[in-house]
Amino acid sequence: MADYQQFCTFHLGDLYFGVEVQKVQEVLRFQEMTAVPLAHDVVAGLINLRGQIVTAIDLRRRLALPPRTPDARPMNVVLHTDDGAISLLVDEIGDVVEVEDGLFEPPPETLRGIARELVGGVYKLEERLLLILDTEKTVDLAPAAAE
Amino acid sequence: MSDMDDVVNEFLVESYENLDRLDTDLVSLEENPTERAKLASIFRTIHTIKGTCGFLGYGKLEKVAHVGENLLSKLRDGELVLDADITSGLLAMVDAVRKMLGSIEQTRAEGSEEYAELIELLTKLATGTNERLEKPGAASKTPAAATDPASVDPDPPPLGAVLVESGQVSPSEVEVAHRKQLAGDPLRIGELLVEQGVVTHDTLRDALRKQQEKQQEAHNSSVADTSIRVDVGLLDKLMNLVGELVLARNQIVQYNARQSDNTMSAASQRLNLITTELQESVMKTRMQPIGNVWSKIPRVVRDLAVQCGKEVRIEMEGKETELDKTIIEAIKDPLTHIVRNSVDHGIEPPDVRAAKGKPREGMLLLRAYHEGGQVNIEIRDDGGGIDTERVRKKAIEKGLITAEVAQRMSEREAVNIVFLPGFSTAQRVSNVSGRGVGMDVVRTNIEKIGGQVDLVNQPGAGMTIKIKIPLTLAIIPALLVTAREQRFAIPQVSLLELVRLEGEQARKGIEFIHGAPVHRLRGNLLPVLHLTRELGLEQDVWRPIADDESLEIVVLQADGRPFGLVVDSINDTEEIVVKPLGKQLKGLPIYAGATIMGDGRVALILDVLGLAQRASVVSQAADRKRADAKRDEQETDDAASSLLLFQVGRESRMAVELSAVARLEEFESATIERSGGQEVVQYRGSIMPLVRLASYFGREAEPGDSSIVQVVVYTRGERSIGLVVDRILDIVEESLVAERRLSTAGVRSSAVIQGKVTDLLDAHAVIASVDPTFFEELVAA
Predict the structure, then answer these.
(1) Which of B470, B495, B521 is a domain's end point?
(2) Residue B137: pLDDT band by 50, 70, 90 thresholds?
(3) CB of B579 within 8 Å of any CB in chain A?
(4) Nearest-CA distance from B652 to chain A in Å?
(5) B601 vs A48, A52, A55: nearest CB
(6) B594 interfaces chain A, CB cutoff of 8 Å
(7) Contact present, A125 and A4 (Cβ < 8 Å)
């Protein structure tokens, strides 16, 4: 019998991403954010999540993708990590999908740049490819740029 | 089973508290061995522990406590006098008891150790006059004596009353005995009643026991009725809830301001008041006097002093100063560490002290006081202070800084090297300190709770470590300001004043010194930052101000330095709940955290010190300027300063400012060599010229032991010059009132210090006579 994994999926432009479902605390619509001047430029701001302050990371910027249109309202995929909750800003939330282990393949050698570091692998689904995001590396920012 | 557990836990908590007090009591008793009240209280503590553990079946613990009690009873009765041996023995007993309690806490058993040696030691200490162990029957022969152990307790109920209550005697019989007593009969009531034949010895003994129990009860109930033990976790939860309530209150109050429902307004008003009161009360439940932490320190100091062969007296001021429990917990280790450092490195061995003209006994002062919503804790010793030269060298050796950086460092920065991770000046690693995990950990721990550590170094005269910490961590008053439509909170502890300039004033408010903006605040130049610019939101912020615009300056203080912060607008003050920032934002020293505002949005809290450091308000340049200004002040003004007094020649008293002196040294005359007609010694790997002040001033050197020379060392960078004096006399705090200017070269002026005419040495002139470039380098650096 083949083993199955569950992923919470979302869209960034034409890319289709997945995060292990156990790592996701909740998904939220657009939230008001407070910008943090001087922070690393992938930090989009701070969100008030029921009294808890959560850092939001713009996944487009993290993956060096072109920015959203100014009036787009990104959604939040809130992950729980050892250091508390952290939110990833994505274009649109997808479904929770169950995929078979046999479909997994490590990222191709030709994948370069930041995506090479953050994409842990690919599931070859029938209709499209599901990129699996390495959440630990995604939220681990190099020491914030000073300026 | 769980009932028993409760009893044991209660016993443990109570015993720990008592033991902590015991440590302090014993050490203070050593200084004042005849203080009966203290002895009695120590005796009582051990007695209670012995009694309870006997009841709970902890035999070993009981045995140890028992011999301790014997020894204590001798002390209390004056048969023995407390000395260092006995104190050590008793402290060892306290340790053993604590160890067993620890083992009981973990395993519910006393552990396998037998403590035979300790028991023997204590017995030996108590023997010699060890006849007066309770003799059976003594109680019945002289019944009144049986009450002796308890006689230190507050008024027991009268024995007569006890007997009457139990129906053994009638009130009239007691009355008869009482009258006899009043008539001058020396016997006690109990004895009189036995004599009258109304009671037997046995009933009397029962009554006496009952009397003691009653007294004990009264003693206990008075405490038990007014206080209960509460789990700290519960208090923490309560505090968090109050924090959330404060936020909700802020939201409601803000909403209320926008509507006009009277009932709602009244309710909101009330909610506001009650929340504030609740917050204060909950905060109070968590307040503890700092004495709770300090109580452990005398013991630490004593043990350490004995270990390093030093004599240290400890003084405490402001024991009752209260702090939040979490803060108390957080400062416990740093405080102990600082104290250990002071004893180990700071205070010199008695002989060295005596040679320097200080009292043999070192002094360690702990001081705590409230100031402006913060608690200040000072740890001061009168030891050798920090030798910045040695610190620099060590830091270079360890590769913490480069020689070039070390050279450029101001004194203040050099002192702060001790806070670098991995730094430790101890020559050898002792079990006391010198593991290199010292002061940096102290600083980190204190800054973690929003505190600041400052070091005031007086080379040769001691060191003061000042710790400033907030009263509580959870809720702080803050000022809200705006920069580019975004709100920021500034903790009010750093706030000095608010300045608002309008119209013409606003246009002229900011002036520039080579591009650096400043504001003239009551005649003083205040460096100014623009928040928008500091946040990197916009670089070009100093545009001309329009007529209807105003300039808002928040005057803040970081590290004791005032500076102005220009903001777009100043909104309001609010109580905010500090919430930590995520790991991704930890590298930004400019923020202290974030909070949730009344409207539910997040606002960042500015870290004033981080902001000042980022903008270099707190820097070396500022430091040097300040130091120079201070020096000028000392030369012209009558500000108090520390002076080093010494003797030159047979009878000339001279003084120099201690702050300029790097070190006091002693050299054997044999080590003095000559180089180019100049006396020199090898000093720290380089050659140090010596100037004999007596011959400089053409005075006859003091006859006597000349095998050792006393040298006042001045240091600039790698270079040192030693001034040879005949004797170091003293270090005094004195305001310099120049009495008369002198024309003598090398003397700046003379003054009356300690009732004697003292010449103020012009060290610059003297040194320049040997090495004209010595001070020039400072100017160039």
Answers:
(1) B470
(2) very low
(3) yes
(4) 59
(5) A48
(6) yes
(7) no
User: How many CB atoms are closer than 10 A to CB B158?
Assistant: 13
Show residues of chain A in contact with B531, CB under 8 Å: none
Look at B192 and B516; give whichever has higher pLDDT. B516
Which residue is associated with the tokens 């380098």? B777
In a 3-state reduction of DSSP, which class is residue B688? Answer: strand
Indicate yes or no: CB of A139 within 8 angstroms of CB of B584: yes
Instruction: Tell me which chain A residue has its CA closest to the CA of residue B247.
Output: A51
Of B126, B160, B192, the domain-final residue: B126
Could you tell me if B583 lies within 8 Å of chain A, comparing CB atoms?
yes
Task: Give me the domain span that covers residue A108.
Answer: 4-138
Question: Which amino acid is present at B92?
Answer: A
Closest Cα in chain A, distance from residue B601 (Å): 6
ipTM of the modeled complex: 0.86
Give domain status of residue A146, yes or no. no
User: pLDDT, tens digit, for every residue of B268-316?
Assistant: 888 988 998 898 888 888 788 888 888 888 888 888 888 888 888 889 9
pLDDT at A76 over 90: yes
Domain count, chain A: 1
Q: For residue B155, what pLDDT is reported?
A: 56
How many of the other CB atoms lie within 10 Å of CB of B774? 20
| pLDDT, mean of residues B769-780 | 65
Buried b (16+ CB within 10 A) or exposed e, B365-395: bbbbeeeeebbbbbbbbbbbbbbbbebbbbb
Contact B602 A53 (CB under 8 A): yes
- Name every chain A residue with its beta carbon within 8 A of the beta carbon of B602: 33-34, 45-48, 53
- Residues B715 and B662 sit within 8 Å (Cβ to Cβ): yes
Asked if B144 and B188 touch (Cβ cutoff 8 Å), the reply is yes
CATH number, domain with residue B373: 3.30.565.10
pLDDT band at B629 (very low <50, low <70, confident <90, very high): very low
Domain count, chain B: 6
B54 lies in which domain range? Answer: 2-126
Beta strands B652-657 and B640-648, pairing class: antiparallel
- Is B591 at the interface with chain A, CB within 8 A? yes
Q: Are residues B170 and B51 in the same domain?
A: no
Q: What is the CATH number of the domain that holds B648?
A: 2.40.50.180
- Asked if B584 lies within 8 A of A57 by C-beta distance, the reply is yes
**Residue A19: predicted pLDDT:** 93
CATH number, domain of B93, equals 1.20.120.160
Residues B689 and B601 in one domain: no
Interface A-B: count of C-beta contacts within 8 A: 68
pLDDT digits (tens, 9 = 90+) for B234-252: 888 888 888 888 888 888 8
Do residue A55 and residue B581 have CB atoms under 8 angstroms apart?
yes
Query: Would you say A8 and A24 are in contact if contact means Cβ atoms under 8 Å apart?
Result: yes
Q: CATH number for the domain including A103?
A: 2.40.50.180
Gap between the Cα atoms of B374 and B369, Å rounded: 8
In a domain, B627, yes or no: no
Are B476 and B576 in contact by the 8 Å Cβ rule? The answer is: yes
- Is A143 domain-assigned? no
Residue B220: band (very low, low, confident or very high) from pLDDT cuts 50, 70, 90:
low
Question: Positive or negative, the Cα torsion across B352, B353, B356, B357?
Answer: negative
Burial status of residue B692 (CB atoms within 10 A of its CB: 0-12, 13-18, 19 or more): buried
DSSP run (H or E) holding A40: none
Q: What is the DSSP string of B275-289?
A: HHHHHHHHHHHTEEE
B596 touches chain A (CB under 8 A): yes
A43 is a domain residue: yes
How many other CB atoms are found less than 10 A from the CB of residue B104? 21
Task: Tell me if B311 sits within 8 A of B360, measured CB to CB.
Answer: yes
Predicted pLDDT of residue B365: 92
